[in-house]
Each structure stands twice: as structure tokens, then as C-alpha cells.
Amino acid sequence: VIDAGQPEHSVVTTCAYCGVGCSFKAEMKGDQLVRMVPYKGGDANHGHSCVKGRFAFGYATHKDRIREPMIRDSINEPWRTVSWDEAIGFAAKRLKDTQAKYGRESIGGITSSRCTNEETYLVQKLIRAAFGNNNTDTCARVCHSPTGFGLKTTIGESAGTQTFDSVMKADTIVVIGANPTDAHPVFGSQMRRRLRQGAKLIVIDPRRIDLLKTPHGSEGIHLPLRPGTNVAMVNALAHVIVTEGLEDKAFIESRCEPDQYRAWRDFIVEERNSPEAMEAVTGVPAELVRKAARIYGEARNGAIYYGLGVTEHSQGSTMVMGIANLAMATGNLGREGVGVNPLRGQNNVQGSCDMGSFPHELPGYQHVGDPNVRERFEGDWGVSIDPEPGLRIPNMFDAAIAGTFKAMYVQGEDIAQSDPNTQHVEAALTSLDCLIVQDIFLNETAKYAHVLLPGSTFLEKNGTFTNAERRINRVRKVMAPVAGMEDWEVTMALSNALGYPMHYQHPSEIMDEIARLTPTFTGVSYDKLDRLGSIQWPCNEEHPDGTPTMHVLDFPIGRGKFAVTEYVASEEKTNRKFPLLLTTGRILSQYNVGAQTRRTENSRWHEEDVLEIHPSDAELRGIHDGDWLGISSRVGRTVLRAKVSDRMLPGVVYTTFHHPGSGANVITTDSSDWATNCPEYKVTAVQVEKVTQP
Ligand code: SF4
């Protein structure tokens, strides 16, 4: 932390770590950032913060920052430092040559949930308008894409239904596959405050999370299910609610499609969905499941919060729909204190999805196959848009290995470290003729790149982020970009070099265009954001100041649609060779692959990833705290130190993925969600053995 002294001026901006979206005053002395002070006027954080947002900003000026563009003809050659013009010209020529040789569909790109809404919008526009295809995807593919599918299918909008403050009106809080006190600390603290006031807590997670330690009026219930059995659990909970008469019949009758409700009800009352029948699958005693279902079913206000422990499964989308079923069945939608609330991992996961990053959807989740939607965008952009959805990230990798996909533009995403089955990803990246990486550090993906374009941090640009409660917050420039260009300017330069002109002077103009083309954003502008502080979309004629609570009177699809959620066991199974199940998560001081937090003071709190293993599994293998362990899966092997802990169930091991050396994704498989291809990071069968040294 820089010696602060008295700041000379301050700028209000938004934290670039997690999906809580805390507001901070960046206090400056000359052009030096001396301190990040949580901003009391922040609508998401009300003056609170965590160790990441408050202290982990030093990476912005770290010596490892890439300060000049670099190019090379092949990945075996050393980098050559060049001017922006030369780098952009080189990249554009490679992209054009690739399309000339292999066809229009042979190139694509990936937007980032770390970047602003305006930057993300511009990358997908570049791909659709300048590349001429829909091969655009976002890193949200590997985290919350099932949220998009599951919520849109059931309640009509790919977003959380509430404000964070709404939790203060919940009398039952259900947390599924999330660890808010570590991954969303400011909101985790708010939850704790509500629990201390007496709200009841139900946690569905293989691991005993810290929230369960909160002293509160009634004891929290922990349903420690086996990894991969979420859908069995949600069906068992729904079975109790329906068969014990805990449904909200008035809500179902007035708000939901009757035929789909009947089909779901007929399915859910089957004995095979009872807690007793599912006990053998989930490993959780039926009586405990019944108790939890009664608490949620009888709650005046029951609110569900979920994280990647729901989505990163082969049945991720099914589970999201199962959660929406529960909320509809109990009438827990459309007012404060209730709802279905995905806790987004990165700062702008919600925004990157909203901005049309997916290959099948233009901004505002408008399907690319809809001729009316295309006509509106085509009129504004002056190009014709391909009606066919493009490639998802895993499809891009497969096509690269097959030799039909040859060039990729990756902005702010380290796919070589963060995507599953690293060996497969590396094989794909090595097959490309042109990989353009735009990032703030020389990351793992850059090893396979031909063009390296320096990225800008959140402190170096203007724009907006959208947090997990649909709140659009302003990001304000605090310092000049270290390499002279903001990310949106780089994308614009690349588009111009490819022959599709873009001439924005400021990100506010990009937001004006987004508002023009996106029905849920028509009322959003920088002026309004400055006036109101933040806006929760939808913000349009109907809701000029935004929408804190969604689905109050109806759903965007009219009536809510129950979905039949059949449990299907994960293909990833234990056997004698791989007898343990590995699941993954995060810790408080670090952030995702650690590219930023590892380059800050926060590193002192977490120097390495470790493998948590239950005492009984450790004893069986003669493992003690600190021992080196070899961890093998069906796709790879890595080495980690042991931490013996009873937070996990016997038979389940756990690690974080904050350090590249540990290579958790060397062992995760490429099994994925049936609907969205979101990888099944949370279920990997492994063998663990003591080794003498790494
Ligand atoms: Fe940043 Fe999230 Fe911490 Fe808030 S809770 S300061 S948004 S990391």
C-alpha cells in the first residue's frame, strides 16, 4: 500500500473483482493512486468493502504490465516490440489472410467478463460486423451460461431477481453451491447480518462453508450432498413441498402456465423423487432434507442464492430450472426478500452476457435467428448479420483441432489456465494460424499468441460494469492507460483496419448505441447514471429509473414455465482407480486464476493452492498436513500439498485454482452442461497418493 498522505482529489469508480460491484473512491495524489476508500454512496456496498477491492489494486502499476504491443510470425520465435499501428495492421492482415484461405467462419473471438459493458459490446460487434460471423463467446460460458438458459426458460430473463439489500427482508436464506463470505465478501457480510437478526439458513454444498459458523437465532441446516447430485436434491425438496401441501396455489394459478405446472407436478410427486429414494444418491439423510424443505416451504419470504456449485455441472441448466421451479412453487418471486439470485463470480459476468457475447444472442438476449431483431441491428450497423448461431468456446477448440477454425481474438481472458482439460486447450491454441491476445499481463494463453495487445485495467478507462443484481455502475478513469490505449479503442482500431469503420469518441457513445438497440436498456445513459448513482435494468419507458425487483406482476414470457427436471448421474464416476471426487472453489484473499491478486500484497495470505482431504481419506493413505500429493484424473496429473480438513465429506477432496503452477485444470475433464457446454469443473474423479517431492 502506498504511503497515502493527504489525497489531492478522488474519483468514484467500481471494483473490478467480484460480482458485488462495490463503489470506491480512488484517492489520488498527483497522478498516483494512493488509496481505495469504500464509497458510502455505493448502492451495492453502502461503504463496505473486502480485502480484494480495498487493498489489491497494486497490480495496475506492477512491473509485469505489458506496456507495448508485440508480434511474432510463429510461437517459436521471440516477441518483437512494435508500434500500435504495426501491431493492429499485422493482426488485421493475419485475420484477413486466414478468412481468405479458410473461409469466413474460420475466425472468432472471446469477450471478457473483466472488461466493461462497452468493451464487450464492441468485441461482439467487431466479430458480427467485421469478421462477418457469430463466432463470439464469453468467459461466462465456463461459469454462468446455465443461468442464462435455465432462468430464461422458466422465468423469462437471464438475471437475478432481487437487489442485495432485499436479503434483509428474507426470513429463510438458501445458499446452494456458493461460498459468499469468501467469493462475494461484502454481500456475505450482509447475509450474516440478516442471519444474526434471526433469519434461517439452509446450505446445500458438499463443503461446510463459513456462513454456517455465523451465530444466528436458529441453527443453520447443512445438506452436504455428494458432488454432482444437485438435481436429485432439488427434486427431493420439491417433492416434500408438493406432497406436504406447502405450495403457494394462488401464485401458481395466477402466474404460471397450467399445463407445464401439471406435468412438473405429476413428475415431482413420483416416489423416486422423495428424499428417502434420493438419499442413496445425495448421501443426505431424508429427514434432514424434509426439515429443510419445510423451512423453505413455510417461510414467509424465502430467498435462494446460488453460485458455480450449481452451474458448473453436466446438469447445470437443469439445476437452475429446478431452483426456479422451487421459487415458483412456493410463490417466492416478485417482492422483496425472496427470489432466485445467481451470485456472479467476476465483476461483469452479468454485463458480458447482457451485451450479446453469446453466439446465438445479440445484446439484450435477442436471438440472432429472429429476423426483426437482425433487421434492427443491421439498420444501425449497416451490415447484414448471419442468422445462424456461431461457435461456442468448446466448439472453437474442437474446430481448431479439426483444422477448420484458424484464428482467434481473446480479450481479457486466460483460457489456457481457466478452461478445463488444459491439454485439449493447448492443442487447440497450438493449431491456430493467428492468436491475438489482449491482456494486462503476459498470461498463459499468450504463450500461444502471435499478437499481444496491451490491455487496460479498470483504473485506466471509462465505462460501466453490471453486477449480480443487474446494477449498472460507472467505471471512471483514474489514470492514463499504461500503453496509451483503452481496450475499447484497441477493438475500434482493429475494426477500422479490417475495413469496418467505428468512430466512437467516448464509451458514453457506445452506451447510447446499446440503449438504442436493447429494449431493457433504452433508458440508460451516462447522464442518468451520474444522476442516480447506478441503475438496475430493465430501464426503459416502463421503468425509467430501473427495476430493483423483477417479475412483480408478470414474467417477460407472460406466465412462469415449470420444467421437468429429471436427475441424470454425471458421467464422471468414481471407481477403484479414481476413488475420490474433486471439487473446486475460491478463497477470500485471491481472485480466480490469481493474475491480479498474486501481484499484490494479498499474496501473503495465500501462497499456494492446497488439496483439502477428509481425515478418514488421509489416514487411509498415510497423509498428513503439508505432505506433497500426486492427484491424477482420467485426463491429467498435478501435485499439491495436503491440508487435512473435516470441512469436506469423506470421499470428496477440494482445491482452489489461484496459482498457475498447481494446474487444477490439468485434471478437470471436458464433460459439460447438456444445454450450454459449461464445463463440469465441480466433479472430477481422482486418485490421490503421497509423493516425496513435486
Ligand atoms: Fe470488490 Fe467484491 Fe470485495 Fe466488493 S466484495 S470489494 S466487489 S471483491
Structural notes for this entry:
The chain has 694 residues and is an alpha/beta fold. It folds into 3 domains: 70-141 and 356-475 and 483-521, Rossmann fold, CATH 3.40.50.740; 145-342, Dimethylsulfoxide Reductase, domain 2 (3-Layer(aba) Sandwich); 580-691, Barwin-like endoglucanases. Helices cover 31% and strands 17% of the residues. The chain contains 23 helices and 26 strands. The strands form 6 sheets. Strands 5-4-17-16-15-6-7 form a 7-stranded mixed sheet, sandwiched between helices. Strands 21-25-22-24-23-26 form a 6-stranded mixed β-barrel. A hairpin with a 2-residue loop joins strand 2 (23-29) and strand 3. Helix 3 crosses helix 20 and helix 7 (230-243) crosses helix 11. The longest helix has 19 residues, at 84-102. The chain is globular and about 70 Å long. The model has no long low-confidence stretch (mean pLDDT 91). It binds iron/sulfur cluster. One of its GO terms (molecular function) is metal ion binding.
Total beta strands: 26
Category from helices, strands and their pairing: alpha/beta
Instruction: Give the strand order, joined by hyphens, for the main sheet.
Output: 5-4-17-16-15-6-7
Tally the helices.
23
Strand portion: 15-25%
CATH architecture term of the largest domain: 3-Layer(aba) Sandwich
CATH topology of the largest domain: Rossmann fold
Q: What is the CATH class designation of the largest domain?
A: Alpha Beta
Mean pLDDT: 91
Question: What's the overall geometry?
Answer: globular
Question: Which stretches of 5+ consecutive residues score pLDDT under 50?
Answer: none
Bound molecules: iron/sulfur cluster
Gap between N and C termini: 34 Å
Keywords: 2Fe-2S, 4Fe-4S, Iron, Iron-sulfur, Metal-binding, Oxidoreductase, Repeat
Domain 4Fe-4S Mo/W bis-MGD-type: 8-64
Organism: Marinobacter santoriniensis NKSG1
Protein name: Formate dehydrogenase subunit alpha
